[in-house]
Amino acid sequence: MAEEENKAAAGDQPAPSLNIVGQYIKDLSFENPNAPASLSAGQAPQISISINVGAQKQQDELYAVELTINAKAERDEKVLFSVELVYGGLFAIKNFPENQLHPLVMIECPRLIFPFARQLLATVTQTGGFPPLLMEPVDFSSIYRQNLEAAAQQQQQNSDAKPN
């Protein structure tokens, strides 16, 4: 009955849906190159973190979205640990307008799988002998906008560089 109401409200159009079909670790690497010396107490390390989002259509209405997270901790110019994680989700996306698909795949899908990737990084760094690496929440909307701006600038530079 609720499905019939949704169709009627949308003018007999099925309601949009976004479902996680599955989640996976594609790649996980943890290095502690100076163990056991890296585990000794000292001043707080400098930690750098980068995150990238990639997506690929697998089939009609099925998308793979992957987060690539790299984190490195250094103290006195020595690497304490380095971790790389490629964590993905497979999403079934149905009945969304075409103009909403790209932001949905690049913002909402990463937002849904990020907590799992974050927990995995915390567990791996803790198991490696360090305090758990607790990443702050990520604003995927901001990353999306920055990537769009960078792509627009690159396109402008390419068009300016072409001879007439």
From TrEMBL:
It is found in: Cytoplasm. Gene3D superfamilies: SecB-like (3.10.420.10). Homotetramer, a dimer of dimers. One homotetramer interacts with 1 SecA dimer. One of its GO terms (molecular function) is unfolded protein binding. GO terms for cellular component: cytoplasm. This is Protein-export protein SecB. Coiled coil: none annotated. Keywords: Chaperone, Cytoplasm, Protein transport, Translocation, Transport. One of the proteins required for the normal export of preproteins out of the cell cytoplasm. It is a molecular chaperone that binds to a subset of precursor proteins, maintaining them in a translocation-competent state. It also specifically binds to its receptor SecA. Belongs to the SecB family. One of its GO terms (biological process) is protein transport. Pfam families: SecB. It comes from the Bacteria. The lineage of its organism: Bacteria, Pseudomonadati, Pseudomonadota, Alphaproteobacteria, Hyphomicrobiales. The gene is secB.
